[in-house]
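Project standup — Tuesday

K.O.: blocked on the structure for the chain from last sprint. Re-posting the sequence here as requested.
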Amino acid sequence: MKKEEMNFQKSDEFSRTMIPGSFARKMRTCVIWQFIRFVAINIKMLVVVSKSH
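H.V.: unblocked you, prediction finished:
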């Protein structure tokens, strides 16, 4: 069984909590990826605001 698969077993500690896998943890801590997401979200916001004005 993979380490990530153990997160989905029923227990008292993790009854409703999901722990991110190794790939998700790496993406959340990668500064370059966070900057790309920041730019993408800002572009989406500009599109929405420009449609309303």
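K.O.: great, moving the ticket to review. Residues 20-53 form one domain. The chain has a mean pLDDT of 82.
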